[in-house]
């Protein structure tokens, strides 16, 4: 076999089995579902049909009404609703979020305190402060209390009884 053909075959083999630099963001000729190791990120990635995504990574895009917090496709990235939902009781807020899903089939949930805080500091979603918003955390002190964030600042943290019909707070759903 001619030397240049051997070299070409060897390069194609290396690309297919060893991966390509993460700077090559498009999957190119790799079929959807192809896995490889990204040496730059030191993690496994897969082709989603268009882009390389980290295995176990976050969403690449968000559905309408949500915005992305973090680097698309990276671990820790999530989508949060741009606007808060109307006030509701804690368990009803949790159930509302669990009933949603995005086009990738990822289920949404009431945002964790960490997700809510990261989004608040990011400054993207509307009206993150100025009233209480439920987050997905419960504490116990003689009764069960759902945690709320954002009374005045991103750092505000309080609780409301989850069994009280009068404990109504706004909330947002997140998609991981």
How would you describe what is shown here?
There is one protein chain. It is built from three helices and twelve strands, in the order H-E-E-E-E-E-E-H-E-H-E-E-E-E-E. By secondary structure, it is α+β, with helices and mostly antiparallel strands. The chain folds into two domains: 3-54, no CATH class; 66-175, Roll (Mannose-Binding Protein A, Chain A). Strands 6-11-8-9-10 form a five-stranded mixed β-sheet. The termini are far apart. Residues 4-24 have low confidence and may be disordered.
Task: Write a compact overview of the structure shown.
The chain is an alpha+beta fold and 176 residues long. The chain has helices at 3-18, 90-98, 113-122; strands at residues 35-38, 43-47, 52-54, 66-69, 78-81, 85-88, 108-110, 133-140, 144-149, 157-161, 169-171, 173-175.
CATH topology of the largest domain, by name, is: Mannose-Binding Protein A, Chain A
Spans of 5+ residues with little confidence (pLDDT < 50)? 4-24
Distance between the termini: 50 Å
List the strand order in the largest sheet.
6-11-8-9-10
CATH architecture of the largest domain: Roll
Rg from C-alpha positions?
22 Å
- Number of helical elements: 3
Helix percentage: 10-25%
Mean pLDDT, as a whole number?
Answer: 80
Q: What would you call the shape?
A: elongated
Q: N-to-C SSE series?
A: HEEEEEEHEHEEEEE
What's the CATH superfamily of the largest domain, by name?
A: Mannose-Binding Protein A, subunit A
The secondary-structure class comes to: alpha+beta
Q: What does the main sheet amount to?
A: 5 strands, mixed
Give a count of the beta strands, DSSP E runs of length 2 or more. Answer: 12
User: Which strand-content bin applies to the residues?
Assistant: 25-35%
Name of the CATH first level of the largest domain:
Alpha Beta
In the residues, how many domains can be counted? 2
Quaternary structure type: single chain
């Amino acid at each position: 076999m001619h030397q240049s053909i051997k070299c070409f075959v060897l390069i194609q083999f290396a690309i297919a089995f060893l991966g390509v630099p993460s700077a090559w963001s498009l999957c190119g000729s790799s079929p959807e579902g192809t896995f490889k190791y990204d040496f730059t990120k030191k993690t496994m990635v897969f082709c989603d049909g268009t882009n390389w995504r980290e295995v176990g990574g976050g969403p690449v895009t968000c559905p309408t009404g949500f915005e992305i917090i973090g680097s698309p496709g990276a671990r820790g990235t999530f989508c949060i609703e741009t606007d808060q939902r109307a006030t509701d009781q804690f368990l009803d807020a949790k159930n509302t979020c669990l009933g949603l899903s995005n086009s990738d089939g990822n289920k949404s949930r009431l945002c964790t305190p960490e997700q809510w805080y990261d989004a608040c500091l990011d400054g993207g979603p509307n009206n993150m402060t100025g009233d209480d918003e439920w987050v997905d955390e419960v504490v116990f002190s003689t009764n069960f209390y759902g945690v709320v964030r954002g009374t005045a600042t991103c750092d505000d943290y309080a609780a409301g009884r989850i069994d009280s019909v009068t404990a109504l707070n706004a909330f947002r759903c997140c998609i991981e």
